[in-house]
Amino acid sequence: MTKEAPKTRPSRISSTASSPCHTLEPGVYVPTVAFFTPQDTIDVEATTKHAQRLAAAGIAGLVTQGSNGEAAHLDRGERQLVTRVTRAALDDCGKSHMPLIVGCGAQSTRETLQLCREAAESGGSHALILPPSYYGSLLTTDLIVDHFRAVAQESPLPLVVYNYPAPCGGLDLDSDTILTLADHPNIVGVKLTCGNAGKLARIVAGTVGTGFRTFGGSADSTMQTLAVGGHGVISGLANVAPRACNEVVRLYRAGRSDEAVRLQGVVARGDWAAIKGGFVSVKAALQRYHGYGGLPRKPCSSPRGRALDAQLGEFAELVELEQSIAGTSAAAHQRPPA
């Protein structure tokens, strides 16, 4: 929990977040996994292939250097390389407009700003920022707000606040704090991986009409997010099943709630497998079903033997759904006009 609530909340100011270049489109965003060669270098070919496969599936945007992207395992040069290659892959397949959010969180304001500048130079469109937490006992809510505002003031990229208590020593930004941050013109969204639907609803209600975007942090809460006015999800599961994740959103928006609920159940079961197994299980599923991407960076390792079979078995229902949606989409594109 944060240490204290902000004393006052400043009035909302006019925000550049309403401009097309800053405002994120609603939908499913995919925090991509990182790809390595057997020599433990960045696999440029797999990075390119993966970005273009996801773009073809109709997702709203990509994220590099997220928790799924092994940012903690990458040096600064590798982080920039992954972002550059991903941006080039999108440009080459006609998706130059697609947002590319880059994880830029660090423990100091200075380094966070450096990462934002490097992300911009590498082709990123937005910066995803975790709060500093290593010296959590010294960080009041006011200091955390000051950190985000200082970064937002100088960053060449608009910011998306990342609220994810697990890697931040339990630090959980409350809705008052996030609404305070939303008043800054260069803070344009939030990803909530805290699973708090009430918090999400309060943030949505407090930012109506401003261009500020509120995203759920996992695919298993897609419908809950949409039901209270959220704008979509940033989901690691979509590395494996982007079309299935998209389909839940499409059906809900089309008013086909019963169908959306059924698909949400399949997606939620698949997401539970990903949550339990972590990013290595997502990479194992990519290797099994798409033929690339299975290698994590040490000291992490790929699941093997019975553990691998058990994890992949939990993805089977989701993958079947994904393949059926892909097949339906391909058939629709091949059907001659009436």
UniProtKB/TrEMBL annotation:
<dbReference type="GO" id="GO:0008840">
    <property type="term" value="F:4-hydroxy-tetrahydrodipicolinate synthase activity"/>
</dbReference>
<feature type="binding site">
    <location>
        <position position="234"/>
    </location>
    <ligand>
        <name>pyruvate</name>
    </ligand>
</feature>
<protein>
    <recommendedName>
        <fullName>4-hydroxy-2-oxoglutarate aldolase, mitochondrial</fullName>
    </recommendedName>
</protein>
<dbReference type="InterPro" id="IPR002220">
    <property type="entry name" value="DapA-like"/>
</dbReference>
<feature type="active site" description="Schiff-base intermediate with substrate">
    <location>
        <position position="191"/>
    </location>
</feature>
<feature type="compositionally biased region" description="Polar residues">
    <location>
        <begin position="11"/>
        <end position="21"/>
    </location>
</feature>
<comment type="similarity">
    <text>Belongs to the DapA family.</text>
</comment>
<feature type="region of interest" description="Disordered">
    <location>
        <begin position="1"/>
        <end position="21"/>
    </location>
</feature>
<dbReference type="InterPro" id="IPR013785">
    <property type="entry name" value="Aldolase_TIM"/>
</dbReference>
<keyword id="KW-0456">Lyase</keyword>
<feature type="active site" description="Proton donor/acceptor">
    <location>
        <position position="162"/>
    </location>
</feature>
<dbReference type="Pfam" id="PF00701">
    <property type="entry name" value="DHDPS"/>
</dbReference>
